[in-house]
Amino acid sequence: MAIEKHAFGVARRLARRRSAPALHPDGLTCPGVLDVPGTGTADAAPWGVPFLDRAGRYDAAVRWSRALGLPAGRPDGLGLAVRVEDAGGHGVPLDLLMTSSGTGRLGRHVPLPRRDALAGPYSTLLSYRTGGRERVVAAFPVRTGHRVPGDPDALRRALDLAPVRLALCAAAPDEPWRPFATLTVRAPRPHGEPSAPAFDPYLHALAGLRPTHRLHGLRAAAYSGSRHGRHAMITAPHEPAEHEPAEQGQMPRRRGRPGP
After folding, report:
1. 41: which residues sit within 8 A by CB, 6+ positions away?
2. In this predicted structure, what is the pLDDT of residue 241?
3. No. of H helices and E strands in the chain?
4. Cβ(260)–Cβ(225) under 8 Å?
5. How confident is the model at residue 13, as a pLDDT?
6. What pLDDT is attached to residue 40?
7. DSSP secondary structure, 86-140, as one string
8. Are 79 and 114 in contact (CB under 8 A)?
9. Which residues contact 48 (CB under 8 A, 6 or more apart)?
10. Fewer CB within 10 Å, N or C, the chain?
């Protein structure tokens, strides 16, 4: 509980200082398409998750962002938030929040700052319950040979030239990475960048495909602190003292930001 109180206070102070979310303050939201080949006709064992085992094509919203909001050109943790529409049926989306990381058994759990948005994978860092096992989910960019700086303006220019594709994979510690879908990201449409959904990987999860509850309270406390800090100077709402974390199991709701 002490670490959750600390996370709440730090996130609130940082958000208040920058008048923006504590993490991932700026980003680029793009339309995308997720193609799931399924396992019905493939020479592969079923995942035990309907969404992964059946073939389908889904509209998606994708937001790239810089975790600390450092100036362009400097390495930063890069965020990749994905909303898969109707993944669990009509009106039931799936949200995946991923961060630039390594690929090894330990590296996939650790944020890795980068300059190049396509230089390496993005992982959920924490495990997902997929069928009967715990696996980390990751997105591996398909390189085109060109370096793409990880800032919104550079990403927009790159997407104006060609879509970006990423292979979505999952793996347990004793398994190789196994692909389950391809994500194609396109540039925002000419009439403007779409609004980012209120990404929430706990609320928008699927039966058989959901994050484990490890560190759930810590993350919820950081979300709550960021929300209160960001709105304190604007609306002066009643907010808990710094030692009060968010309620367990409840994630603050907010439009347009994928993280705290």
Report:
1. 55
2. 39
3. 4, 10
4. yes
5. 64
6. 75
7. TTTSTT--EEEEEEEB--STTGGGSB--BSBTTSS-EE-SS-EEETTEEEEEEEE
8. no
9. 130, 131, 132, 208
10. N
Burial of residue 169 (CB within 10 Å: 0-12, 13-18, 19+) is: buried
Q: What is the pLDDT of residue 9?
A: 65
Q: Which two tokens stand for residue 41?
A: 């006709």
255 burial class (0-12, 13-18, 19+ CB within 10 angstroms)?
exposed
The predicted pLDDT at position 26 comes to: 73
Contact between residue 200 and residue 253 where contact means Cβ atoms under 8 Å apart: yes
From CA 167, how far away is CA 157, in angstroms rounded?
22
- Residue 130 in tokens: 């997929």
Place of tokens 């994500």: 183
From the list 209, 202, 169, the residue with the least C-alpha distance to 51 is 209
Distance set, CA 154 to CA 16, 57, 72, 144 (Å): 28, 28, 9, 15
Whole-angstrom Cα distance, residue 227 to residue 165? 32
The pLDDT value given to residue 148 = 87
Q: What's CA 67's distance to the chain center, in Å? A: 11
Find where tokens 């009439």 sit.
Answer: 191
Q: Which of 28, 29, 30, 50 is nearest to 39 (CA)?
A: 50
How far, in Å, CA of 221 to CA of 226, rounded? 9
The amino acid occupying position 49 is V
* Alpha carbons 203 and 59: distance in angstroms, whole number: 19
Task: Please tell me the predicted confidence (pLDDT) of residue 41.
Answer: 63
> What is the model's pLDDT at position 121?
95
**pLDDT below 50 — which residues of the chain?**
22, 233-260
